[in-house]
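subagent[fold] <- orchestrator: predict structure for attached chain, return tokens only, no commentary.
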Amino acid sequence: MLSRPVVDRLKDQIKDLRKVAGAANFASAHDDIKGEPRHAYVIPANDSAQPNRADTNGAVMQWVSERFSVALAVSNRRDPRGEHAINNELESLRSQVMAALLGYVPANGYDPIEYVSGNLLQLTPGVLWWSMTFSTGYLERNY
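subagent[fold] -> orchestrator:
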């Protein structure tokens, strides 16, 4: 998973974020929150490969699809239901993440990034966590 180009792209494109980083999973991102959150964490989700399409013995040529999530953490101190956080912070950040990542090619040989889905990860009295899942892919070859 190429998380570094995605982290760099978000840092470059979205000045409203206080922190952008990579994380191995949601738990490590959750434990990293300090101060007033307006953070994004790029987290690998999964990858999958199509069957080998090479005809020759020992050669491999297969399409690999990679998914990753951008976990957004926004302040939720004003409203225990999260309505203020969703309407005033999350929607703006979601739009900015979409603008930064949709169609972005993270590395040579990769397809442009596409949006897959989003979901609420966690709502606490201090932080609302939202996950946005994206996909890209590349052709793996070994001749």
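orchestrator: received. Logging for downstream: The radius of gyration is 17 Å. The domain at 3-142 is CATH 3.30.2000.10 (STM4215-like).
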